[in-house]
Amino acid sequence: MPIIKLNKLRPGMIPSSNVVELNGRTLILSGVKIQEKHLSILKKWGITQIEVYGEDEKESVVTEEERDKYSIPEQISDALLINAIEECSHLFKLNDVNVPLTKEFFRLAVGYTIRNHPDVEPFDVT
Amino acid sequence: MSLDLKKLIEEEGLLFTLPELAMKINSIVNDPEGTFEDLAEVISRDVGLSIQLLKIVNSGLYNFQEPVGTISHAISIVGMVQLRDLAVGSIIINTFKELPSQTISMKSFWEHSIATGIAAQTLAIYKKELNPERFYMAGLLHEIGRLVLLVKFQADIDKVIQQNYNDATPAHIIENNLLEVDHCLIGEALLESWNLPKYQQEVVRYHHNPMESEKFSVEASIVHFGDIIAHLLNHSKSGEHYIPQIAVDAWGNIGIPVEMLPTILRVVAERYEEVIASYFA
C-alpha cells in the first residue's frame, strides 16, 4: 500500500490504517475517505505522511450494485462498507442471513454500523 | 426443574424485592377502587421520581404538543396503567442501577433494555395494537432475570459470556446446560413475585422463542423483535455478544410489511436518544 506525503494527499483517498497523532489519539479511522477538512486537521497535528489504499485495491472491492443495496452516502468508502459487512457477519453468526427477513435486518445492521462510526456524519439509513 | 426459582429469589431477600413505593403504585392501579388522585398523590410525594416521569412524558416517546407540568396532568393524558408502568420501570432501573458487576455494565444493561422497550412500543404502534405503551415496560424488563443470575451465579455467568462468545451458542441455552435454569425463567418468576401482569411475565419468559407462548405469543413476538432491533441499533451490551436467533416465524404475528423496517428503526433511534437522557442525565 502506497505511503503518501501530506502535500500529495487528495480528498477521496482512503487511509489503509488508522491515522494516529503522537499522543496516540486517532485522527482518522482507516477506511474513511479523506475529505477537504481532514487535510488541515492532519497538518495541524504535524502528520507528514499516511498510508492509503492504492487505486487498484479500492476499485476491486465493492460493486456498484452492492453499494446501492445498502444505500449509504457517497463519501463512505468501500473499505468502511466492507468492514461493516464483516463485523455484521460476525454478529449474525446465530442467524441464517439468506432468509429474506433476516437479510433485511442484516442490511439495516450494516447501515447502522456505519452510521454509528464516530467519524461518519449522521445519515438516514434507508 | 431442579432449582426452586421461588426460593432462589427469596434467598436474595431485599436485593430483589420491589421497593415499597413500586408495590404501592402497583396496588393502587390493580385495586378497582384505586383512584387517579390516589396515584397522583403517592407518586408526587417522591420528588425525584416525579421529575424523572415528567421528563419521560415530555420526551420523544410521546411527542405531546403541550408541555406536561404535573403528575396529575401526566396521568390524565397517558392513563393510570401507563403511568404505573413508567413509574415502576423507573423505580426498578434506579434500584438496580448500582448492582455491582464486573461482567456487565449496568448502564449498558439498562440502555439495551430501554432501547428494547422503545422498539417494542414502536412496533406495537405500527401494528396498531391497542395500548401500545404497555410494551415499553414489557421490553424494559425482558432481561431482568439476568440480574439475578449475575448476583447469584457470578462465576457461572462469566463462563456463560465466554462460551457465548467462543462457541456462538445462545446465552439462554448455555445457562440451561450449566445451571438448569435461564434468565427467561428467572425473569418470569421475578415478575410473578412482584405481582406484575401475567402477559409481562410470559413475554419475559418467551422473548427468545415467542411462538412457544400459548396465550401471549403476539406480545412475546413484539418484544422479541424489539430486542432484535435494539441489538441492531448497537445497544447490544446486555451480556449477549451475538444478535439473538431471529424467530422468523414470529414475524407473521407482527404483520407489518418488511419494507417498513427502515422507518421503524429510524423512529426508534430518534426516540432512544431523547428517552435515554431522562434516565441518565
Concise summary:
The complex is a heterodimer of chains A (126) and B (281). Chain A has 126 residues and is mainly alpha-helical.
Describe the structure.
The complex is a heterodimer of chains A (126) and B (281). Chain A has 126 residues and is mainly alpha-helical. Chain A has helices spanning 36-44, 55-59, 64-70, 78-91, 100-115; strands spanning 3-5, 19-20, 26-28, 49-51. A two-stranded antiparallel sheet of chain A has the order 1-4. In chain A, strands 2-3 form a two-stranded antiparallel ribbon. The mean pLDDT of chain A is 84. With 281 residues, chain B is mainly α. Chain B has one domain (5-279): Hypothetical protein af1432, CATH 1.10.3210.10. Chain B is built from 16 helices and no strands. Chain B starts with a helix and ends with a helix. The model of chain B has no long low-confidence stretch (mean pLDDT 89).
Task: Please render the helix and strand layout as text.
The complex is a heterodimer of chains A (126) and B (281).
Chain A: E1 3-5, E2 19-20, E3 26-28, H1 36-44, E4 49-51, H2 55-59, H3 64-70, H4 78-91, H5 100-115
Antiparallel strand pairs in A: 1-4, 2-3
Helix pairs in contact in A: 4-5
Chain B: H1 5-11, H2 20-30, H3 36-44, H4 47-57, H5 71-78, H6 80-96, H7 106-126, H8 134-140, H9 144-152, H10 154-167, H11 171-179, H12 183-193, H13 198-205, H14 217-232, H15 251-254, H16 261-279
Helix pairs in contact in B: 2-3, 2-6, 3-5, 4-6, 4-16, 5-6, 6-8, 7-8, 7-14, 7-16, 9-10, 9-12, 10-11, 12-13, 13-14
**What percent strand of chain A?**
5-15%
Tell me the distance between the termini of chain A: 33 Å
CATH topology of the largest domain in chain A: Molybdopterin biosynthesis moea protein, domain 2
Q: Please, how many domains of chain B? A: 1
Determine the number of helices of chain A (DSSP H or I, runs of at least 4 residues).
5
Largest protein interface, residues of each chain: A-B, 20 and 22 residues
> What is the makeup of the main sheet of chain B?
none
State the name of the first-level CATH class of chain B: Mainly Alpha
Low-confidence stretches of chain A: none
Q: What sequence of helices (H) and strands (E) makes up the elements of chain B?
A: HHHHHHHHHHHHHHHH
